[in-house]
Amino acid sequence: MNQVNEKELLAQIRAPFTREIGFRRFIEIYQKPIYQIIRRMVLIHEDADDLTQITFIKAYKALDRFEGNSTLFTWLYRIATNESLTFLEKKKKRYFFSVDDHQEKLESYVDSSATLSGDEIQAKLQKSLLKLPDKQRLVFHLKYEEDLSYEEISKITGTSVGALKASYHHAVKKIEQSLLQE
Amino acid sequence: MHQLPKQKPFTTPDNYFEELPDRILSQVKDKNSSPNWYWAAAAVALLSLGWWQFGGTNSTSLPLTAEEEVLLYIESGHWSAHDVLSLAEDPNQLLDQIIEEEYAKTAPLWTEEETWF
Questions:
Q1: Rounded Cα gap, residues B89 and A115, in angstroms
Q2: Is A96 near chain B, with CB under 8 Å?
Q3: Cβ contact (<8 Å) for B92 and A97?
Q4: What integer pLDDT is reported at residue A136 of this predicted model?
Q5: Does the pLDDT of residue B34 top 50, yes or no?
Q6: Which of the residues in chain A have pLDDT under 50?
Q7: Matching CATH number, A1-96, of 3.10.310.40, 3.20.20.100, 1.10.1740.10, 1.10.287.70
Q8: What is the pTM (predicted TM-score) of this model?
């Protein structure tokens, strides 16, 4: 992904005659990591699918205003993570007409996935992660699973490196304790 | 820390990533003119209903606009938020809109002051 010539890709997207082909390339390059980080946060494929599409549509609308202060990858990650957090927040705030708790829905989704795949260790980890606040869970995913540096995460989240380090440290402790208790 | 297992990548339906670019591109073309008409339609439906239901009851007082009348019934407790939402064609969409608008105004997603732990 780092070998992508972003300037050339941006120029292709911004030129009227190559806009569509350039944007298609843009989607093809970034769709898998964007989908994975969203899916890690929302777990259910249908929700991740919706949010991945929304992320790219928002990016399309804003690409002309992209100033290049960060990499395209960081910028797109920022849109995707904001969309995921907004989605989760919305699920929590909605109490009218809701027949079930979203947290319970996610936990039962993890249980049913584990039954299908037979992977209990993954299910335990997933359940431990669900106990974390959403933003802390995001920091954990970006650092531990995606292997991004604190500096990159800082650009994505707009948060200081110090706060991220502390958040990640607490997340790891909580997960370890949660796994030990089971 | 090293004992924690890494998560496996999530699986997707067959051909998901082969088809996704086309699905996104078709929406980008459709959405070039995407007004907020769901919200407008819900508001109009709501106001019309209020006007129709209570329009004839205040013939001796100063005429109220439909919007004022709806607000009056809400503020006096005659209608609950639940009643109002029930009148909407798609209450969940209305809620999403309200939450999005209100939440965007008051709560930026990332702040240094918030509790991260």
A1: 39
A2: yes
A3: yes
A4: 93
A5: no
A6: none
A7: 1.10.1740.10
A8: 0.69
